[in-house]
Amino acid sequence: MTIAVQKNVEAAAVPLAPSATIVPLSPPRASYVQTRLIPMAKDWAAKLIPPLITIAVLLIVWQILCMKPGATLPSPSRIWADSKDLIIDPFFVAGPQDIGLGWRILTSLQRVAVGFGLASVVGVLLGALIGQSVWAMRGLDPVFQVLRTVPPLAWLPISLAAFRDSRPSAIFVIFITSIWPIIINTAVGIRNIPQDYRNVASVVQLNQLEFFWKIMIPSAAPYIFTGLRIGVGLSWLAIVAAEMLTGGVGIGFFIWDAWNSSRLSDIIIALVYIGLVGFVLDRVVAFVANIATRGAQAS
Amino acid sequence: MTYLKIDHVDKVFSRGNRETEVLKDIMLTVEKGEYVSIIGHSGCGKSTLLNIVAGLTTATQGCVLLEGREVNSPGPDRAVVFQNHSLLPWLSSYDNVKLGVDKVFGRTKSRAERHDWVMHNLDLVQMGHAKDKRPSEISGGMKQRIGIARALAMEPKVLLLDEPFGALDALTRAHLQDSVMALHAKLGNTVMMITHDVDEAVLLSDRIVMMTNGPSAHIGEVLEVPLPRPRKRLELASNTTYLKCRQRVLEFLYERHRYVEAA
């Protein structure tokens, strides 16, 4: 109130002064391009230019090293000349065994989806069991710790002998390779459920199944997703090993086939594909984890 | 018949071959609708006592009777408001309250009735507006309100409050104490509250149970607070009965059973 009164007094005193015309100076209007597009472009450039430079340098060094006549590996320019069709069109079909790498990748991804899907379900359940029960942990954990160090290829002869068919064997190898980190991380997550949540569950009298869905899974979700992320990486590693020996259409078999017919350029292209797909898989799981574990952190 | 009876309860924690007796021969009866506070220095086992009543811990000796029946496992008839609210961070306020309601009234109330009941309880603690907020999006006092709503919504026979205002700042605490008083006046719940705040105990309780220091803590004294309800914080500040009660509790805690650093 007092301020308003003071203003009035001033206003009453001043009006005799000659009024000057005010020339409004329009402030420079920042255009959409200046405020949004340029910073965004700068942001993108900062992210994209360093890796592009790295790749360019690698390609140049590689080209120089493999250009001389006696080189054992093909240079980038040679690869381009040999396998141009594989690079520019991933989805061509020129015959039963002459198809684009995109199709092969899709076949391999199907196998990974089945194997990794099974591993996720079984891994989370087993992890929940050994996270929840001290005796299950004492009994199973040492076995798991030993089994998880067995390399994927070593499982293959055993699964081939057991299933007597290449398809389930390949899926089994993916399953057995990717399940361990899922089990172990889930178990850790469940062991770390705060006692408070357990108390709440017992006051409300949740039964085992409700406790599993309503408390265990959401509370351990960040851990479970860490396990799934490691698992999906491992399963993609295992696919190549599995398909190399089981045959079929997948990307792993393609590498093996290319090696047998000395198409080194094709192998290198396939390696790039595998790397890119593995990267995308990892990002997809990380993205899902981000959405699914929103709010799971205690405050 | 007494409503809630804690009958000769002992609690011994054993770790390896070392045994620590935390509670010794606790005898306490609580009448229906009564507000009882348990006060004592930290480490005297008052939270252990509450956990025994809640069924989260079992008594080594003795038992707890509610309406003449022994209780030894947790249940919604003895809902707890935890010190650190213990809301599930991945659920909204509404869903946190609904978790208990669905369990307790899943058979007896329809879906719509349960929804109304959840909203009714959120409104009781003035949190209806925050029903869609997650615990991380609301303040400490608001979280504790949701915690109280969750407990009340289970229609407990005894409401157990485990230092419910301990983690709150003084102003929020006073505000919430007033809310709890209003709720107690309105609903007539039987309440057992753990506290270490003398003013809080005198302001809210019908009786104050003072516990001696552990180990082997027992009930040292029980004080009736003969103040009429509703009680007003400001008027009580100069009320002689209030000051006398406060004096008694302070004397008990700081003269006769002074806190000794754990040896």
| Sheet with the most strands, sense and barrel status of chain A | none
Strand content of chain B: 15-25%
Mean pLDDT of chain B: 89
Shape of chain B: globular
The secondary-structure element order of chain A is HHHHHHHHHHH
> What is the overall pLDDT average of chain A?
84
Q: What fraction strand of chain A?
A: under 5%
Chain pair sharing the greatest interface: A-B, 20 and 24 residues
Please tally the helical runs of chain A, counting DSSP H or I stretches of 4 or more residues: 11
Using the CA coordinates, give the radius of gyration of chain B. Answer: 19 Å
**Terminal CA distance of chain B:** 42 Å
SSE ordering of chain B: EEEHEEEHHHEHEHEEHH
Number of strands of chain A: 0
Strand order of the largest sheet of chain B: 6-7-8-3-9-10
**Uncertain residue ranges of chain B:** none
Give the count of helical stretches of chain B: 8
Which structural class do the helices and strands of chain A define?
mainly alpha
**Residue ranges of chain A: pLDDT <50 for 5 or more in a row?**
9-13
Radius of gyration of chain A (CA) equals 31 Å
Share in helix of chain B: 25-40%
The quaternary state of the protein chains shown equals heterodimer
Q: Would you write up a description of this structure?
A:
The complex is a heterodimer of chains A (299) and B (263). Chain A contains eleven helices and no strands. Chain A is mainly alpha-helical. In chain A, α4 (101-132) runs antiparallel to α5, α6 (152-163) crosses α7 and α9 (208-246) runs antiparallel to α11. Chain B has 263 residues and is of the alpha/beta class. In chain B, the strands form two sheets. A six-stranded mixed beta sheet of chain B has the order 6-7-8-3-9-10, with helices on both faces. Chain B has a four-stranded antiparallel beta sheet with strand order 2-1-4-5, with helices on one face. Chain A binds chain B through residues 196-197, 199-200, 202-206, 210, 214-215, 218-219, 221, 295-299, and chain B through 54-56, 73-76, 78-80, 82, 84, 86, 88-90, 99-100, 103-104, 134-136, 154.
